[in-house]
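User: I'll paste a sequence; please echo it back and then give the predicted structure.

Assistant: Echoing your sequence first, then the prediction.
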Amino acid sequence: MTSSWFLVAGLIAIVMAPHAEAVHPGLGPWKYVAGFAFAVVLYLSVLLHEASHAYMARHYGFPVSTITLHFLGGVTAIEAEAKKPRQEFWIAVVGPLTSIAVGLVALGLRSVVPDGLLLMVVEGLAFGNLFIGALNLVPGLPLDGGRVLKSAVWQLTGSLHRGTVVAAWGGRVTAVAVLLWPLAQQAIWGTEPDVFDFVLAFIIGFFLWNGATASLQAAKIRRRLPVLVARNLGPADLLEYPRDRLRGLLIEEGSAASHAAIVARALGIPCVGRLLGIRDRLSEGDQVIVDGETGEAHLRPRPDMLDSARSRMAVRNQRQAEFAKLRDVPAVTVDGQRITLLTNAGLAVDLENMVETGAEGIGLFRTEFQFMVAEELP
């Protein structure tokens, strides 16, 4: 719980104090206590909202480190990204659905709760949660609705990057709409906005714009990173990155026998695993040598190590160039026997390799790759 929570709880107490006095005259200073109690109950429902995110994340096997309540609600720190659109959808949508469910239950209790402070709390809980649920379904990052949109675009296009970009721009559009809301309420309802309306719109709009921009920048960095560093990674996640740009893969938990490492080798991307703490030791812009042949990674290497690595790469490239010259040479033994050369395949990109190497067909098709990268049984 951040210190900003106490600020917003105090503001809620001040706003709700006149309502508490109206439903229970004679409270005096206790009306602020009643307002603060309402703030606590409201934020308990926000905690339930965030706990539902955590529950669903753990259901899919993703660790959750913290749940933090702050000025504009809460945030659940999930220590991994969804590997499939379906996972992203359910982890995101369960929060708003929980808030709406709490709001509907509280709305149903209005008819049985007696008049007074308790009814004020129940009504506030009902409308507050219905508002929170509806707001979080707005299709723009960093809201939950933005993650729902992200999962939908991801599912339709097969691209996590495209889903993130679309949802991030949805968040920016939402931020602009929030900033213009005080003017819109005057045009629609004829209500004159006050200073508080403009300040609140600015705070919320600023929060949404920053969150959307951060998601957009992260998506762009993800597309251009020459070396990817991750805690863990699935084969489907690896295929989201452009093969022609990704130069290496460093994984904290995965080993050389992991599915991601197997797919990386098939793509010609050097991969080193079991590098505990690598994310904390590397910063953006650091140089790193990823040696997939020896299974070693050298962080911020010395100039002589860089020269050695470049020499090895030059020898390897020269060897590949010599092999390429033999592409169209018939495979015939010295005694005149014709040999058919076939390639191993398991991914669509292997078809490109077949053309590049001059293979006459597929000799071994690795069906396990289809199970690794598919969301459902292929």
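The longest helix spans residues 30-59. The CA atoms of residues 251 and 273 lie 5 Å apart.
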